[in-house]
Amino acid sequence: MLLKKFFNVGFDAITVVERRPFGMADLSRYPLFSPEFLEFMRKTMPAHRHDQLILSITITARKPAALD
Question: In terms of pTM, does the model score above 0.90?
């Protein structure tokens, strides 16, 4: 679905460079997430999920020059 959205806005040469799990320890490195939010996440998410909450994906793409 994500790749389709890139194609829909004109990108091509789309490559998935990396896929890796993103967990609580990773979230705590970003100031976007407050300590209160992180504590809420620790309490509400099962402990076995703390290391893999989401999948981080790095993508490269190219948007071709407009044709005149």
Answer: no
